[in-house]
Structures are given as C-alpha cells and as structure tokens.
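look at this stuff:

>
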Amino acid sequence: TPRRHCAALMATGTLYLIPVSLGPAPLTLTTPTEVTSRARSLDYFVVENAKTARAELKRFKHPAPLRDLDIRELPEKPGHADLDALLAPLLAGRDGGLMSEAGCPAVADPGALLVRRAHERGVTVAPLVGPSSLLLALMASGLDGQSFAFHGYLPIDDEARKRRIRELETESARHSRTQLFIETPYRNDRMLEALKA
C-alpha cells in the first residue's frame, strides 16, 4: 500500500554525495561548510579509494578516529549483489556518504552505479555542492558555457584517440559546442601532444 511504501522510504538512510578536493587548496576555498559538517556527522562511507577518503576526512577534521569509521571501497566492476551489500546499512536506516577520488562523485566515476542502485532500492540520494573539475575548467576557459558536451575519458590507443579528437572537433564546429573530456595526470602530456597535432 502507499502508506507502507512511504514508511519504508522514511526508514531508509540518505546517501550523501560528498565532493572531494581537487588538490591542496585551503578547505575554506574549495568546500562549503555544509559539506564538511555533513561529512563529519557520518560514520559510514562508500569510497573509490580508502586512502584518499581518509586523507579528505582528516582534512575535514572528522571528529571520530579514522580507524573507527566504516569505510568500504566500491569494487571496480560491481554487480547488484556488491551494490546491495554497500547499500544495506542505508536500507537499515543509517546515513552514509559516497566519495570519489577527486571532485564530484558519480560524474565520470564508478559511484554512478551505486547512485542508480540507491534510486532503484528507494534510498534518498542527496548531492552536496563542491569542487567540480569540469565546471571549474569550463568557467575559467572562456569557451561557450551555453552549449557544451562532456565525453569522459578519450581512448588510450593513439590512433583511436586521434580519431575521437577529430570527431569532437567536427562536432564542435558543426554545433558551436564546447567539448569537455578528462584525462589521468600521467597521460596529460600525451593528450596535450595529440591535441596540438
């Protein structure tokens, strides 16, 4: 019945999507107070990388000893059983946080799978405001922010990457659209050379 369904929804915890620092900038410049306050109130976290998450929680000045927090890593390719196990504390009424390695969770990030499963299971999802490399880059670029497309990671293979860059260049010209993509730090130089070529 609708009443029973509403009671079940009220009994679940909330999955808070907690943005993570993009670098060593002072916390007060990158993360709203509401985000750090919410993160400090939680003791259960699903994370991409436990070491990175602990460093960020330390930066947030989490009041509990980090070893006492329940921090679980999201598997690289999680199935429904993995996701359900990670959501079990929330389904039991406990609030939790989802943290990426850097930036906003669930954007070009495996955390999106957990968020989708949370919606399917009736868990409330609450995104929190914080640093997003995509939007910060777009803001600082001077490029068109009215029409843009995000493509995630481009291919690693040199030839496939060249083809994809040409496709994006054509799309950009055809639609007057800014093209955004991301790259890992250790491949940035190769990507820059490919773009210049």
